[in-house]
Fold each of these.
Amino acid sequence: MRINKYISETGFCSRRETDRLIEAKRITINGIVCEAGTDVDPSDVVLIDGVPIAGKAEPVYLALNKPIGVTCTASKEVAGNIIDFINYPTRIFAIGRLDKASEGLILLTNDGDIVNKMMRSENGHEKEYVVTVDKPITQSFIEEMSSGVPILGVITKHCDVFRINDYEFRIILTQGLNLQIRRMCKALGYRVQRLERVRIMNITIDELDKGQWRELAGDELIALFAQL
């Protein structure tokens, strides 16, 4: 089994984070510094920073209504990191990101496999946001946002955009470019004043106050896994 899959299945961290640990030479296998793509057997001794990895923990799936100012990183060196904020008793990590200036739904887990599946952009998983901008929304803005905006050297994918009032709109994305909504609005001459994610696939922040988290219910998980 590849080392990044092996570690993600223990719940220690995602495959992507494992690759970062490998690059930083923080993982050893049988006393030898691990290289990318290395295979590992059950009998091998795998250490991270010289410490053995614990066995696979019970899966944890949480929904958090993230406040503004919390940073979606597992790095303890970052003030206001999401792991310290949620203070969960076992090791978990965020699925994807929501920038520090944004708020709303983010999922956390110790299941590296689900992270890998949900982060594959080609799967087209829906994420819904409510956005407030700095000037009145025009029909032209709605049409351009939905049909595709040139940012980061690409044209964004078609998306659904709905006007709520003069300054607010709802948008459903199936891709996750860096700061995508903020960049799209800026390209069209608007500035985002408030950005809240309200849904990821079938999971919503309904009845979840700002800063609160909850465990995902069984029926939610069944519906979530069916879409992966």
Note: The chain has a mean pLDDT of 91.
Amino acid sequence: MTSYQFPSDFAWGAATAAYQIEGAVTEADRKPSVWDTFSATPGRTLNGDTGAIACDHYHRYKDDVQLMADLGIRHYRFSIAWTRILPDGRGTVNEAGVDFYRRLVDCLLEHGITPHATLFHWDSPQALEDLYGSWRSREMAKDFADYATAVVSRLGDRITHWMTINEIHCFTHIGYGVNQVPPHAPGTVVNRLKDVWQTSHHALLAHGMACQAIRAASPVPCSVALVDNFVPTVPIAESPQHIAAAQQAFHVHTTNGGIIEPALTGAYSTALLDQLGEDAPEIQEGDLKIIHQPLDAFGFNNYFAVYVRAIDQAPGYQFLEFPISYPKLHMPWLFFTPDSTYWGIRHISETLGQPDLPIYITENGCAVEDVLTANNEVIDTDRILFLRHYLRSAHRAIQEGYPLKGYFVWSLLDNFEWAWGYDRRFGINYVDYATQQRLPKASAHWYAECIRQNRVV
């Protein structure tokens, strides 16, 4: 029997995102992001919910840091709101916005918590959407690099763990729809699939240019990472033929071969480009060199996977649909696939040929139908089940020698869950939105015990 013990230097953390928790959307000269506009548009979010107040973290960050400290969390991944730093997306830096993050980081450091800052978690400036269409323009990459310079030159004395962009697929391929309104902000209708792929290519350029900007601006040595939620392809059985099929299928599933692959290898998947044909993005000379920056770490946001099996006809693999009775959590896409952690890590190391790249699970968690009991408790054994099995999968990867260095639970708090508003709860701490009271759930106490014992309990 294994004790599921983790290495002594394993980083246990929690993660959040600016628009989902901060609120205070007009405070200290912050201007609207595309998510402010999107959530204020009737019919775009469930119940018309917006992030205007969210968890009011902007005003309550000291309490939230204390909450982490009480649970033993020593690493905190958060994002910085572009429009707090550059309200118009470019131009004059808003020092009052910078000062909020300076106060937050100082508070973290006072409590012995290491900050891990993500520069972009979907909340792009509305001003740049109005000016040139955000990610439809190559200008966005340059403006993002300038924003990175503004942040890192001011906060780089306090923050040494930087992440450029979170989940390119979600704000490009879900945010831009071909001749239909897409489900995610900014909800931009485009004419061709090629236009969608162009937005993710521009986001990759932004990542590459930001890597260069971070290293140039940081006053001290720092770590630079990309965060992606690529979808692992899991073999239906771990036989040589099914494993080979899963590795072959990885390149063409969703956007794997067009986002994580060029970022980590410097080339788009040839199999994907063959599939796309005329819908492939325009790639200018030098683009791939900019995109393929050396990384100090890679952040893997892990929720679910797809099962694959080998077949005796072209292309040699088959993606399998989930049966109607397959277990899932409280989101339509959140199928219970804990092997996705192990296989996602293995695909980075083996399928993409990056055996020495340190990996962090930068998000992992689930929405469940939390119920507040008469005793003012949330006994979320379903979330504990989910987290326990995914962490066991992470442990397997470490046991087999893959370079997994840390884990950030998603999320520290219940929060604004994008188009789902406040209806879906991912936090290990319950938030009463009427009173802003925080209440640790059973999963928070369980996670604290994992941290205390440095193993999966």
Note: The chain has a mean pLDDT of 98.
